[in-house]
Design a protein that fits this description.
Length: 182
Amino acid sequence: MIEPWREESFDDPPWLSLSPGDRPQASQSEIDQRWMHAAIDLAMQAAAADEVPVGAVVVHRQRVIGAAYNQREQLRDPTAHAEMIAITQASAARADWRLEGCTLYVTLEPCPMCAGAILQSRIARVVYGTTDPKAGAVDSLYRLLDDQRLNHRCDVTSGVLAKPCGQLLTDFFKAKRAAGKK
């Protein structure tokens, strides 16, 4: 079963409760790192559930409206990627399939299926951690999110916390290979 995102799972920084004029200005890099840490936490939950450790968070106006990790094994569903589930949750939270003005944070470069869902949902911006040289559809194998032939394009920021995002995957598959040799 898909676990719904829980807003209380992601602690707001203390400055968020201040009135806008009193808040310190956080850089875009700091904001991106904050939300990528949330995606990494979800990826760690995926690893604990013996799923490929990928986490995704959809943010609108500095609030989480969708958050998920890979659940292909648990749901026996090839489409149960973290991005797909988070997009579905975000659409439900907004009561609209259009996610204009939203940012998707994901630990791994989206695949072609997820890139298609990103485009279809009109997400404005995608931030990902590590590249996927075998299935990446943002920069590695394909460039779907900025393809001029399509009716929507996304701003993309790559490499945010790439090392910890990549290390989760490396450790997961290393353990899988070691378990297979026994």
